[in-house]
Amino acid sequence: MRFNLAFFASIIAFLLSVPVQAFSSSHAPIAISLPAFSKECLYFDMNDENDALLVGYQVLTGGNFEIDFEIIGPDGNSLTQEKGKKYADFLLKSFGLGQYSFCFSNSYGTALKKVEITMEKESQNDAKNAKVSEEDVVANHAVEEIDRNLNKITKIMNYLRAREWRNMSTVESTESRLTWLSLLIMGVMVAISILQALLIQFLFSSRQKNYV
């Protein structure tokens, strides 16, 4: 029991002593709406050659859930392109300092599409080369393992939430189509009934005239 208390105490002391910049800073997802045949871009400034950026997106609603994605470097050249994707993840390392553009295009169908984007900046830990005690090393490994597990859980939850959004969008689209189909069937039935009544009335009226 003493070992457990000492271990957790060392983790807490390590968390309090290490600067916040040593860990990857998580950002809340960004949601954008893409009308049909439109293009939206997000921008990020890379100020350090050692920095890396985790970029991911998921199409939540709209049509076939497919969009085009492109990353443009500071020099204006295209670094990567994705065509007709529902979701993707990228690890962007520095291709030069400056402003990077992340562009999303809705070129498939005429439906409005909702896209959720996550960006997470990762920086190298400058304290790795510093001399630390054995307890700090153990605490560091434990914190890194917890951070990796939390990232895995977050990705799984985001994927499941995106699947739920897509399923709900499909259900709503199907309900709308069924509603219009039911109205069409009702209109056809009413038209057929009116035609039948007019035909019977015509036949009886023409027969009475022949007998007279």
UniProtKB/TrEMBL annotation:
Describe its membrane topology.
Single-pass membrane protein; Single-pass type I membrane protein
Q: Which family does it belong to?
A: Belongs to the EMP24/GP25L family.
GOLD domain boundaries: 39-121
Q: Which organism is it from?
A: Nakaseomyces bracarensis
Report the leader peptide range: 1-22
Tagged with keyword Transmembrane helix = yes
- Give the UniProt subcellular location, in the record's own words: Endomembrane system; Membrane
Q: Give the protein's recorded name.
A: Protein ERP4
What are the record keywords, sorted? ER-Golgi transport, Membrane, Signal, Transmembrane, Transmembrane helix, Transport
Chief subcellular location equals membrane
Membrane-crossing segments per the record: 178-204
Q: What PROSITE patterns does the record point to?
A: GOLD (PS50866)
Under the heading SUPFAM superfamilies, the entry gives: Supernatant protein factor (SPF), C-terminal domain
SMART domains on file: EMP24_GP25L
